[in-house]
Amino acid sequence: MRDVLIRLEGVAKDYDTGGGIVRALRDVDLSIDHGEFVAIVGTSGSGKSTLMNILGCLDRPTRGTYTLADVEVGSRSNDARAIVRNRLVGFIFQGFNLLPRTTALENVELPLQYRGVSAKARRARAEKSLAAVGLQDRLDHTPNMLSGGQQQRVAIARALVTDPPLLLADEPTGNLDTRTSLEVLALLQRLNRDMGITVVLVTHEHDIAACASRVITFRDGYMVSDVRQEQPKDAARDLSELPPPQAYEAPKDDEAIVGTRKRTKIPFVVYMAMFGGGLLGNLAALVLNQIAGQPIPGVGGVFAILGEATFATWIARRRFKRRMSVDERVRVAIYYSLFQLLILAPVVAFVVLSKIPSSVTEFATAHTTLAVLACVAALAVLSLVRFVFLTVANSRLAR
Ligand SMILES: Nc1ncnc2c1ncn2[C@@H]1O[C@H](COP(=O)(O)OP(=O)(O)OP(=O)(O)O)[C@@H](O)[C@H]1O
Ligand SMILES: [Mg+2]
Fold first, then answer.
1. Burial of 357 (0-12, 13-18, 19+ CB in 10 A)
2. All structural domains of the chain
3. Which of 17-21, 232-236, 261-265, 372-376 has the highest mean pLDDT?
4. CB neighbours of 49 closer than 8 A, spacing ≥ 6?
5. Which of 41, 48, 175 for a ligand 1 pocket mutation test, highest count of atoms within 8 Å of Cβ?
6. pLDDT of 320-374, one tens digit each?
7. Best residue for ligand 1 mutational test, from 22, 94, 218 (most atoms within 8 Å of Cβ)
């Protein structure tokens, strides 16, 4: 059995602008049940705000009927609509609409003042409402002392303080960045799920609409589609998957200039992953050589470096929760090549010393400068090749 909260039948809204009639809404039939989370989308001027004003009893339809919680409000007088609005609707706007130079607590108390609630009860309810949006420690802050997201949360607390069954939000995240938008949305989703509040929200953003259980599209005043989403996105989960705030401040790939900013520390596990990847690459090369029946020149090196780059990028991506910057790739390539030349190679050579042809050691002792130069050249070439492989893996794997 459906539990209808909102019912519009043949609703139209015309504005007479003097120079002509603007048909802001045309013949809208719509019903919304208690507990739904509806997103209204559509191009600018398609009638979304007009619809919200009617739903919120701020305006009345030119034609058609609007029934809210079994009350036919569309044709009621302004005063009668104000009473219904005060009892049933909480409104949230893009611009927050808080009173300046008035504390969060006083802003939230305001709707209760209109209802004649006693000062003590007002304060208690406003405090509870602000706590519900996580602002219990900002009661005495005025709007100019609050961030955009916090101001919007005060506005949500104000909309909630009368315990309305319906929350209307006209682009509540329009003035907020991605993270803060998600925070506000997660809050609205929680209120919808936990308290059963019906939410109708206007948005221009796909990501926001994706969090609704139903998306209604308007065009030129007509309702052109009404789609239910079986599995709406969970804003709280999306929020938890965002990189931590400071990662936003880090310059992106191309902007990373060595020496002009604080360097990120590369976790040791990235180098270990490189080592592991290199071993696996060597193993793969061995198998390939076996299959070929003879050693294929160069395959060991290429496979090793490919394995290193793949594993290192993968681990770095998990650790940093973003791609590696140019600076980080350069450092990984150089440090790992140094490690290989200074530690790994001598150790291996020592363990299997007999495998080094005596001519090589004799040459190195006789021409020390040349030997050092050869090492430096090897370091440069190895680092460069590793950097190239890391860059390719970084762009392929890490997005
Ligand atoms: N008070 C008014 N007087 C005259 N015309 C109006 C009035 N309010 C809205 N309109 C017109 O009605 C149409 C619908 O406006 P509405 O504000 O509902 O659009 P919207 O979908 O909310 O757009 P946006 O995404 O830009 O907020 C527009 O063409 C607008 O110019
Ligand atoms: Mg609008």
1. exposed
2. 4-242 (3.40.50.300), 253-397 (no CATH)
3. 232-236
4. 170, 202
5. 48
6. 777 888 888 999 999 999 988 888 777 877 777 677 777 777 887 888 888 888 8
7. 22
